[in-house]
Amino acid sequence: MAAAGGGDADREEILELYRLAVEAVMRVSAQRGAANAFHLTVRTAFASVLGLSLTTPRDLARWVTPAISLVGVVLSVSWWLRLRGYRDLNRAEIAVIHDLETRLPVAVFTAEWRHLGGDRGGDRDADGGGGAARRYTGPGAVEQTVPFAFGVLHLAIGAGGLARGDPDARQRPGVHRFLYARRG
Questions:
Q1: Rounded to whole angstroms, how far apart are CA atoms 73 and 154?
Q2: pLDDT tens, 100-157?
Q3: Residue, of 94 and 9, whose pLDDT is higher
């Protein structure tokens, strides 16, 4: 790539790369939104399945609710990892945009980030991040708590499914009858 100030052709090339980088950031943000919509749809289906498994315990084996919950935990982890990947990709793309802006007359993204108090690809801004960095919580940080919360919820539901016991065990022959006869 040509050095800064190398002429109008160089500036046009840098401006075109800048446009492509900004477009890439927007595309990743759209993909991230679609991924969140997909995972929330899956969560709605899971809520239905879990609700059915909890309301009809006599018809299900004791392991069904914990097994469904385990799948929910796995999906929560995959959702969290996917969001982390999008966050890392966006961070790298923004760093490229910041680098390109050093060769342009106006640095819109850099100025926005400075006002938010963020850092630029690992380097602190000239103002050291200021107080805004402590106040600003990006959407990625908030967004990543949702899969974590669902994972904890799935673990709790699975543990509850294991702890609820087997309501039909008293009527079964063998060891179950022996165990319940001693308690009851």
A1: 6
A2: 999 888 888 888 888 877 654 444 333 334 444 456 667 777 788 889 988 888 888 8
A3: 94
CA distance 60 to 98: 56
The CA distance from 160 to 68, in Å, is 12
Looking at the DSSP bridge assignments, the partners of residue 119 are 124
Structure tokens at 5: 């100030």
Task: Answer for the pair 39, 144: CB distance below 8 angstroms, yes or no.
Answer: no
Helix (H) or strand (E) holding 148: helix 145-163
Residue 124, helix vs strand vs coil? strand
Nearest to 99 by CA among 78, 123, 129: 123
Q: First vs last Cα of the chain: how many Å apart?
A: 83
